[in-house]
Amino acid sequence: MATEAAPEWLDKGDNAWQLTAATLVGLQSVPGLVILYGSIVKKKWAVNSAFMALYAFAATFVCWCLWAFRMSFGDRLLPFVGRPDFAALGQAFLTQQGFAGAYPAATLLFFQFVFAAITLILVAGSLLGRVNFRAWMLFVPLWLTFSYTIEAFSLWSPNGFLFKAGVMDFAGGYVIHLSSGIAGFTAAYWVGPRSAKDREAFPPNNILLTLAGAGLLWMGWTGFNGGAPYAANIDATVAVVNTHFCTATSLLVWLCLDCLVFGRPSAIGAVQGMITFLGWAAMLMGVVSGSVPWCTMMVLHKRSRFLKRVDDTLAVLHTHGVAGSLGGVLTGRACGKARPACIPIGDDPRYVGLAYAVRDGRAAAGLRQVGMQLAGIAFIAALNVAVTSAVCLVVGLLVPLRLGEEQLAAGDDAIHGEDAYAVWGDGETYEQSVHGNHGYPGQPRGVQSRRDDMI
Length: 455
Description:
The chain is an all-alpha fold.
């Protein structure tokens, strides 16, 4: 069916920026988090960790096109979820104007996909170093379907009940960061911990690549928050500037706390501080996002028997869950719909940040907004504990959630038959390693790889 290439409602500038922003967010996952995950873990887990991220990106896109996008932003089925259908596969739907912005639904589908994908990849960060890859393959589509779509529809869809109630979530503080923190921690509880040896010492295999992955993640925030206003306008510009200012401040605060408490600056700590930034405000929020998650991770976590019991590999609960909650609360305190860095909430004058409400003599409206932000946190937390637990229990009936002890000891070689780097020791030679001639014609007799020994 022929379609008009440039209908009257299409803003080419907005469409170009939205596609660019989506690509920048996609680069945060592939290759950003693929590189970061593959390098921040022990060498024996490098391939598996990076591959978990790559798989989640691919599987999410297929499910997103088939049913998840319409469940997140389609016609209302229930107050908290849309009706699944195959409309997103048709040209007629993809080329019509989307629910937001002056561009087609296809642009919104792609932009919202990269948000969904990075949420699943963040959940993976809590499970690195012991989750069964086959269990992860099942977990991704199930969690996307029964958790993420409900969060996205409730908070971001114009038909969602939390959206209508006025809960503000600018660029995923709740839908992405809080949900991945709670879901990752909950899944880590059900999967179980890494091996005792890995929990005792889990050094990065390549800190330089960790910093490179973190750099891709940082620059991708330009599209993450700059694309959230759905237009190439002043709101997008202010969001980008505030994003980088807040990120840099958060990194520096975390770095200073490491120096004061541990006596040395940590590159890995700086990466954690960079990740915890709250997204759209500036220096004050950067100070909060760099200090509060640091305290919960470095102080509270070590004193809590329950928190220590759950093996959250990359501390996603703190770097995303705590930071996302702070972002939501501070949004309710400081954000007003007339301010350029904030998400608009229709024309209802009730929806105003507490700080501006007090200034304007409407403290009750501001307190109501803070209350709605707290209600949003409660909803996301409860949903993710319940759904993630249910998904883990169902997957556990089909395949083991946690790898066996022999696989935990071997890592990538046992799971994928592959090794991240051609580095060997303890008398091992190239021919004896997984990078040698194993399995190919001409291999000398008697030469066996570590995989043969395990079999």
